[in-house]
Request: fold
Amino acid sequence: MSEMINITVKLFAQYREGKFKVEQRSYTKNSTIKDVLDDIGLDLAKLPIGVLMVNGRHMQEDCVLKDAQILAIFPKVGGG
Reply:
């Protein structure tokens, strides 16, 4: 059996629509942010990623997550 980690995932702005605001989720050890994005099923073609943060620090999609971390996902926001 694979070792599991528990991650708190926070979605912001339009990503929350039809999903959740904050949720505890379990993944196999060595899962990346990309794995979480794929699992959640965000429409990244329609709403591209703006910022990814793990425990308050900017990260890339290839970041390997560790148990008890907090992943915050923000869409790209236009403005003017």
Notes: The radius of gyration is 12 Å. The helical segments are 33-40. The chain has a mean pLDDT of 94.
